[in-house]
Amino acid sequence: MNTQHHSIRARVRRWGALGLTSVALLAGVATMTWHEAGHAQSASAASRGLPDFTDLVEQVGPAVVNIRTTERVRAGRGGAQSPEMDEEMQEFFRRFFGVPVPRQDPRQDPRRNQRPGQEEETRPSGVGSGFILSNDGFVMTNAHVVEGADEVYVTLTDKREFKAKLIGTDKRTDVAVVKIEAGNLPAVKIGDVNRLKVGEWVMAIGSPFGLDSTVTAGIVSAKARDTGEFIPFIQTDVAINPGNSGGPLINLRGEVVGINSQILSRSGGFMGISFAIPIDEATRVADQLRANGRVIRGRIGVQIGEVTKDVAESLGLGKAVGALVRSVETGGPAEKGGLEAGDIITRFDGKPIDKAGDLPRIVGNTKPGSKVSVQVFRRGSTRDLSLTVVELEPDQRPRRQSQTEPKPPAGATTALGLTVSDLTDAQKKELKIKGGVRVDAVDGAAARAGLREGDVILSVANNDVLDVKQFEGLLAKLDKSRTINVLYRRGEWAQYALIRPTR
Predict the structure, then answer these.
(1) Rounded CA separation 258/438 (Å)
(2) Using CA atoms, how far apart are residues 190 and 226, in angstroms rounded to an integer?
(3) Whole-number mean pLDDT of the chain?
(4) DSSP bridge partners of 214
(5) Which of 125, 170, 174, 314 is flagged as catalytic?
(6) What is the CATH number of the domain that holds 351?
(7) pLDDT given at position 417
(8) Between 233 and which of 275, 337, 413, 491 could a Cys-Cys bridge form, CB atoms 3.0 to 4.6 Å apart?
């Protein structure tokens, strides 16, 4: 008898009081080596640590819906004309970061140039997912899922299908709400995004490629990804594909924490990086859509950029925080409140601005008409300003700068490789500035810093520039062996350049 069998028999004798069932169980593993038994115990322990999504699917699944859309076109002699690429594939490439596909030329649209008497027909235009917000039939999805649709149909997991009414869409956040006439519907539970942690397990339910009620799972890869103007996306590695758009991202408590919206892909397929709209942002939008049919946002009339580490250190700001004001709209709230190009907004209405992407979101969520405090960093010191937020108009575009530029007077050359000249009164009036010098030629360190002919220098080393004489006086006092920050304007935009000494 070998030692292994002897050891097992000894254990059986010691555990004899456990009864025949225990003896039989031990006898059944007598042929396993202790090494194999150790691996089995490790596998068992590991399996106990993995999440089981079956209860979540049963709990949330009935509240997830399939959404399909149709559009009406008039049939030609040979039937409806088909675009070069069907709508589903165009949605695939446009929305999921693949190859950009231009919209069809309106002159080739089958709905144009129709002859009288041609019959109208309905054709599918898209497919997506959504989830039920309330038991009286309000459904949330992505705006791009229902964009351009003449009719929207919602199919429940019990195969009932309803024609939905579009309540409202918001392209800026890619959120839409539709309504179906049904009652006692299963609704989702809304979770707290602030409790969501990187590395946490999450699950998605949707209709990728039209495959209803498909369940995929993964973890939260990152939070607050700035890939949108108003949205700090949740990044996951949950498998998301075309058709998943608009479906819920669910935590292990069975709560919806996001709307699956986009993927990052070089091939057009899933590559392990997916993005979801945080549910708190989406709910805020949905509430306004249900109340007003549209979203009302605030604006202050500035164009902004990021603050780099080098610029922050050069200005004396310390950390790279805030939003750099690159342009101030004439007559807008920011100008009336005293903001200037080159200011760095560090707080808005008492809320810290850690990065540039925070500002549009906070301003957008501020009620128009509100008077708010704004903290800015300007020329090496902090200032507190006050302004009144106004309403953001749909698809507002920044104003264009006039192309006329009077010929500048003769300039002066500086040690930094800059030839500059004074601005005319007409130029100052056109640019709406009180001072500054125009760059007529650039070379050396200034050219390496990115400055070029036509730029207007507004400040040097945190000092305002009024004219050429004062500009030269400032440079004469500066230590040329140290990096010098220069605030300049190019067209409508203001930016900082760092002129570094030659090593």
Answers:
(1) 49
(2) 23
(3) 79
(4) 206
(5) 174
(6) 2.30.42.10
(7) 80
(8) 275
Report the pLDDT value the prediction gives residue 357, as an integer from 0 to 100: 86
Under 8 Å between Cβ of 474 and 464: no
Q: What interhelical angle do 20-28 and 3-14 show, nearest 10?
A: 160
Q: To which residue do tokens 């309106």 refer?
A: 106
Does residue 114 fall inside a structural domain?
Answer: no
Total number of domains constituting the chain: 4
SS3 assignment, position 46: helix
Q: What is the pLDDT of residue 424?
A: 87
Give me the pLDDT at residue 13, please: 36
153, 190: one domain: yes
The enclosing domain of 68 has a CATH number of: 2.40.10.120
Active site (annotated) includes residue 35: no
Among 159, 89, 76, CA closest to 118 = 76
pLDDT at residue 416 in the model: 75
Is pTM beyond 0.85? Reply is: no
Quick: pLDDT tens for 259-302: 999 887 766 667 788 999 999 999 999 999 999 888 999 999 99
- Residues 291 and 336 both lie in one domain: no
Give me the residues of the chain with pLDDT under 50, please: 1-35, 37-47, 77-85, 89, 92-94, 96-108, 110-112, 397-410
Domain enclosing residue 20, as ranges: 3-49
For the beta carbon of residue 310, count every other beta carbon within 10 angstroms: 14
Residue 174 annotated as catalytic: yes
Query: Which of these is catalytic: 125, 129, 207, 245?
Result: 245
Instruction: Assess whether 62 and 9 both reside in one domain.
Output: no
Residue 18 is assigned to a structural domain of this protein: yes
Give the active site residue among 144, 170, 221, 327.
144
- Whether residues 151 and 164 fall in one domain: yes
Tokens at 479, concatenated: 């230590």
Q: Is residue 17 part of a domain?
A: yes
Q: Distance between CA 482 and CA 500 in Å, rounded?
A: 7
